[in-house]
Amino acid sequence: MGARICVLASGSKGNCTYISDGVTNLLIDAGLVCKRLEPLLRAKGVELSSINGILVTHEHTDHIMGLRSIETKYNIPIYANQRTAASVDIRLHVNTSKWIRNDFESGFKLGTIQVIPFRTSHDAVNSVGFSLIVDGKKISYVTDLGYVTQGVFNAVKGSDLVILEANHDLKMLANGRYPLELQARIKSNTGHLSNIQAAEVALALAKSGTKCIILAHLSEENNTPELAWGVCYDSLVKNGFNPGKDIYLMVATQNVSTPMVTL
Ligand SMILES: [Zn+2]
Ligand SMILES: [Zn+2]
Hints:
Blueprint: E1 4-9, E2 16-20, E3 25-28, H1 34-42, E4 53-55, H2 61-64, H3 67-73, E5 78-79, H4 82-92, E6 108-110, E7 113-119, E8 128-134, E9 137-142, H5 150-156, E10 161-165, H6 170-175, H7 180-187, H8 195-207, E11 212-216, H9 225-238, E12 248-251, E13 261-262
Parallel strand pairs: 3-4, 4-5, 9-10, 10-11, 11-12
Antiparallel strand pairs: 1-2, 1-13, 2-3, 6-7, 7-8, 8-9
Helix pairs in contact: 8-9
The structure holds zinc ion (2 copies).
């Protein structure tokens, strides 16, 4: 049946990604309330009620804002590691104790999809990314991290498709209206990946066999889709790749969902 992937929304105002093998339907993060998420999914022919589980990367608002309304309206199981669940509990005042699985860190199966979390370097209590094995394809989700550790790269290399953060352009960040403190936070090892960092990782992924990269979590303030795409494109071309032929490069944005990618 293949794997189907759609980044429904991506950025600091709310993140949500749909991944399915036609049997098991999952969301990664739910930073959009029901009222916004339902029509985005419906536009792709998916009902929110058909979702079998939601995986949570970390407790920042743009990743969890919809969990409460989804929990109230639908009975969809939510999964997070213990420290993240406790932190969401404090922020949203929802009982997150049933979200915790003892096998979370080591990886687990949700229906027909294998879920493998990995630690990321970010200013959250215990943030993670995910690799999912979906009908034999490896799909990885790696946003909200200050840099790609060797552990993260080992986890995501060889993925068929990677949703990869390209948060900011360094010049736009430096010349923008963010205060210096916030700029420092974004650039730090526990902040967000710049376009240049994303391009380095994209190249390493391409060398590892990755065939599709969706750049994500772009800052609306300090980046543009054209810049993020251009930096990655140039680095791939310079190194002998032919984007559009041997690797597909896409950009996810805050307000327009990506097409449904099928692998
Ligand atoms: Zn975020
Ligand atoms: Zn974050």
